[in-house]
Structure formats: structure tokens, C-alpha cells
Amino acid sequence: MNARKLGAMAVLAGVAVAVVPWLLPTGPNANLDAARFLESGSLAIGAAVVFAGGLLTALTPCVYPLIPITVSVFGARKAESRGKALLLTASYIVGMGVVFSALGILAAKTGQAFGALLGHPAVVTGLAVFLLLLASSMFGAFELALPERLQTRLTSVGGAGVAGAFLMGSVSGFLAAPCTGPVLTGLLAFVAKTANTTLGATLLFIYALGIGVPFFVLGVSTVRLPRGGVWMEWVKSVLGIMLVALALSYLKDASPWARDVVKGLGAQLGRMPGALVAGVLALVGVLVGAVHRSFKEGSRDFAFKALGVTLVVVALVLRGGALDAGPVGALWVRLGVAEPPQAPSWRWHHVMPQKKATFSSDEFEQVLAQARSEGRPVLIDFFADWCAACKELDRETYPAQEVISQSSEGQFLTIKVDATHSDDALDALMERFGVEGLPTVAFVSPAGKVLQRPRITGFLAPVPFATEMKKARCEEGSAC
After folding, report:
1. CA dihedral (394, 395, 397, 403) positive or negative
2. 457: three-class secondary structure by DSSP
3. How far is CA 156 from the centre of its chain?
4. Measured between alpha carbons, how far is 152 from 314 in angstroms, rounded to an integer?
5. Segment holding 383, helix H or strand E
6. What pLDDT does residue 222 have?
7. CA distances from 469 to 107, 175, 407, 417, 453 (A)
8. What are 327-360's pLDDT values in tens digits?
9. Which residues does 221 contact at the CB level (< 8 Å), separation at least 6?
10. Is the pLDDT assigned to residue 259 strictly greater than 60?
11. Is residue 350 within a helix (H) or strand (E), and if so which, with residue range?
């Protein structure tokens, strides 16, 4: 790769690491259906990212070499008309989309149980090891593929015609399995945390559409796809880096000390400086050789490739920590470069249970009794470490001035309940408050009554969140 192309790739990687996390969608809420979720501005970008992930998967060696063979088998290139070719190719892609959508629905149906399973250290460690093995395959340590006999049998399913194209599409996911894993694992985890079946089916269908783009190009047009070459190894390197970062992300969420380290680094740097530092690290990592060098080209390339991959992975992990940090890093305040924030900040009066402690029902009831005696409304946030939308609330909603002002004006007593590791007492509390998914924000009136309305499930932006808080301050029957 020449210096100009390498420089452009490095700059693009640095900008992507710094900027893209701000453009990704927030989690859905109970009042937000999948159609509105995908149609809103930033969430449309999220759907585009899913589509791009599918396209990237199609460019891997697991899928790409099969495209011309598959298209010829179901007859799109030999169709007597462009319309017939379009119908055959569309049938193939829809067949693939149906299978992936079924996976999305299954992941969404598991909901909280899937997320709680991901929070178990043993499960997370096993998943991380699996992802690292996949990453090793992407980097060329070994070849991961289905047995040749099984590949032959799967390829023979279907045949020419619309029905044959549909059936071939439905089994193509198994042929591509070794390379769909890198993108599909993270996507299924996100869908499970939303517990939204429509959203799960839609996002996974979009992912399948991304994979189907090269099939569509070759099946419908007379365009010939570029020949396979070294660029396919670059795609594998990108997916390998994503896999390593994903594995570390799972370990971070399941390990308190790792989570505290990443969170502490983000707090030291701050949100914007942390993004810039992560972008620079990613840029340097790509320049050093994270993508274009190979682990199999001698010790010198091996060393540069390892250094580059390490820098990019560290950049991605650091970017995740900075995303949840405050606007001003503690490091810059100590160095005298920045002033500490003067605006009021959100504060939790009680976090239950504390780290390495079990939930105490008596302590919780004492807090509620105190609030009732003082005539204060109570805000109770049920969260978990594995819950993505919970982090969105902490990052986007609670620090907002509208929410802080409403809390101060209404003299709310705030409680954060950690449901990462459930026990009988905590399960009973969640059943009492009707918690079906996380995050759930429940309210208790100043008179001590648990309110069924308002009730917040999932992410909610600051302004409507403050409106719900104002409703909770009102005595039953009085105007807000």
C-alpha cells in the first residue's frame, strides 16, 4: 500500500473512532416503536451502520468467493430478462433476511434473561475467549470454515428458480457463519438488550440486506466484482480488531476492577479530550500496520502488526470509557489546563446494594419511610452493568439541566438499584414495582404511593424525562 492511501486510511480510522460513537443511536423506550426508532435522525445512522456491517461481512473470504458461484446456481446471470434476474436475486436476499430476522426475534425474546446471562463472569469469559479465537482466525492464525462435505450439501439446497433462490438464501447464513460472527455477535447482544422483537427483526433484516448487496450487483447487472486479493485480508484485519475490542468490552462489563479502570481513565481525560486521544491512537495504530501488515510475513511485520492492533484496540476501549465521562477531565483540572465544572450535577442519594454487598429490603424500606415522612417524591432507577440503555440514561439524561432542575425543585429523593446480580430480595422488589426490563425508572409519590404512571422503561431524552418527573410530584387527583 502506498503512503497516500495508507495516510488516508489512517485519518479515516482516527476520525471514525472519535466521531462515530456520538452518532450511534440511543436505546429505545417503552413509548417508542421500531418504525420511529429507525426513522429518527441519529437512529437512521445506526441502521446504516448495521447495513455497512452486513456489506463488510460480504467482503470477507467466507462470503465473497461464493458470490459468483451462488448467483450462477440459482440462475440470475442466465435469466432471460433483467426483471427475472431481479426477482431471483431478491428472492435469495429475502430468504437470507428471513433467517437473520428469526435470529433477531429470538434474541429479543430472551430480553433480560439474555442480558443477565451476559453478566455472569463465567459466561462472559467463555464468550470473550470465543471472540478472541474468532479474532485469531481473522488475523490468519488458523482457517475457520465449515467441513467441506457440509458446505457441498448446503450449496446443493435449492437450485434454479425463485423457490430455489429463496432456499439457497435461507441456508447461506450457515455457509458464511465463520465470518458473520464478528458483526452478528455484537448486533444480537444489542437486540437482546432492547427486548424489542420488531426492532430485532428489522435490524437483522437490514444486516442481511447489507450482505446481499454484492449478490444484487452481480445478479442484476453486468458488472463484474473485483477479483479477490490482499484487500480481503485487510477486511479480515478490521473484523479481527473489532472482535478483540468486543471481547474486552464484555470482560470489562463483567469484571468490576476492569470496569473501574476504564471508567477511571475516561474520567481523567474527559469526554472530548478522550475522544481526541482515542482518535490519535487509532490513527497511529493504522499507520504502524494494524490493517495492511500481516502476522505471517516475518518477525518485523509481526511486531508492527501486533503494535498497531494493540493501539487500535486500546483506542476503542478508551473511547468507550470517555463516552460516559464528564465534559471536563480530572487530569486537565489538576494540570491547571481546565476549570472544574461549576454547574450543578446529578447526585444519587442512595445506591443499593453497594459493591460486593447484598440487597437489604429493610434498608430500602427505611429510605422510603424517610421520604414519606419528609413529603418528598422518590425516583428509583433499576439498572444493570450489562444494560446499554441504562448507560445512555446516565450519560445523556441525568446530567441534563432540565432533569437536575426538576429534581432540585421537586426535592426528589433518588435511589439507584443495581440489578446486575439478582437475589430473592431483589427479585421480590422488582416484582413489587412491576419491573419487566431494564432500565426501569419508577416513582413513589410524596404520600408514599407507588405510581403506575408515570413509569419510564428504556432510554428517554432529558425534556420528556423531566416532564415525567414533574407528574410524579403531584398528589393524586391534583393538577401538574
Report:
1. positive
2. strand
3. 35
4. 41
5. strand 378-383
6. 53
7. 32, 51, 8, 18, 10
8. 788 888 888 888 877 666 788 999 998 877 889 9
9. none
10. yes
11. strand 350-352
Tell which residue, 123, 23, 27, 8, has the closest CA to residue 392: 27
Q: How far apart are CA 259 and CA 433, in angstroms?
A: 29
Q: Which three cell numbers stand for residue 112?
A: 433480560
CB 377 within 8 Å of CB 412: yes
Can you give the pTM of this predicted structure? 0.62
- Chain-centroid distance of CA 98 in Å reads 22
Q: Which amino acid type is present at position 271?
A: R
The backbone torsions φ and ψ at residue 166, rounded to the nearest 5 degrees and listed phi first, read -65, -45
Q: Which amino acid, 2?
A: N
pLDDT tens for 372-396 read 999 999 999 998 877 767 888 888 8
Quick check: helix, strand or coil at residue 455? strand
Q: Report residue 97 as a C-alpha cell.
A: 433476511
Cell 447526585 sits at which residue?
347
Each residue's pLDDT tens digit, 88-118 = 778 878 887 887 787 777 766 665 555 555 5
What cell does 372 get?
414519606
